[in-house]
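During the reporting period the student researcher (J.K.) took over the structure-prediction task from the postdoctoral fellow and processed the backlog of single-chain submissions. One of the processed entries is reproduced below for the supervisory committee.
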Amino acid sequence: MTIEVKVPPFPESISDGVVAGWHKQPGEQVRRDEALVDIETDKVVLEVPAPEDGVLDSILLDNGVTVVADQVLGLLRPAQAAAQSPTPIDERSAQQSPPPSQTPQKIASMGPAARKLVADNQLDAGNISGSGRDGRITKADVIDFLDRQTVEAAPPESAAPETAATPAVPSAPEAPRLTPGLPEIEEDRPQQRVPMSRLRARIAERLLHASQTTAMLTTFNELNMQPVMDLRARHRDEFEQRHGVRLGYMPFFVRACAEALKHHPDINASIDGEEIVYHGFCDIGIAISSERGLVVPILRNAEYLSLAEVESRILDFSNKARDGKLEIEDLTGGTFTITNGGVFGSMLSTPILNPPQSAILGMHAIQERAVVEAGQIVVRPIMYLALTYDHRLVDGKSAVTFLKTIKELLEDPASMLLDL
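J.K. obtained the following structure tokens:
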């Protein structure tokens, strides 16, 4: 008797997905609720758990296959049936099953991209050192391990006898390195053609839609970060000890945006057909870069969150994005978005709207600059702010005053935090 492993029902906004990678191979033992296979959609990665204890009998749909809800992915033999019959070992499992010395916990902690590289190259995860949080193996760790294996496997060059009469022949230029795990192309100018991931395709679709259907305009201002930096420096250690999270800059910006949105309802609104929807709550999206691409999880009712709650939830979102465990509920909705290109060194940019939202705030790198205060030239840590808005709904005056409000709140954070 076998049990069918099926694709789970998709959320309402998702119609299909792609098999991203199997955690088990035919003949391997599985436990109830243990992750068997990942299904990648255009928003999140869904884990399909094992319905019962037993042995994975066969895989019917391999990586890269598009699937719909309730489609059969593979067959599982329950524990009782597996104990009564020998485990079949076919050629596929012999080729793809990981070496027995691998640590299951180490494999389970890896993200989908790292797991796929380990499986495709038949590596022993126990031999790979992880550089991530708590020794977690990242995709970069697997690539570095593959590079070291290639260098160690290269045969040593034999010493050639010195011959004065023979001129040296220049060696051919080394071919550019390509991504491990992808097919090699033996050409002088190699190229690779790979399918676009579902998330990347969705991002491309939404960005193109935003540029074609909105009247985007961007306004800029500069922010003196000295008051926020001083406040953070005074209370950073005590904050971390009391709340268990580090105090970064993002919570201050979330609080400032939530306060500013209360006074600028058009910024916290969206267009729905021929109507304008004014939102009486501040659901602020935080753009997070992950291995799969850019995701924007939502801080619900951000106007009621403390700095510690904001920091804690952003950290949780970052961990879930890294592990591919964000859920549809984490990404649905949102009335305003903050994106921080400064973590990558961006000095200035014009962020693109996240429809149907009417505005998005762009943060940038903090740089010491010469500014004039009270007739004197002084050096201050300055950040450039950018607000992109939909000019169909938001007038220039409203956008400029909204950004100015954020600037004033952050340059006097005490009054903001004390509700003055």
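The committee noted the following: Residues 26 and 94 are 9 Å apart (CA to CA).
J.K. will present the remaining backlog at the next meeting.
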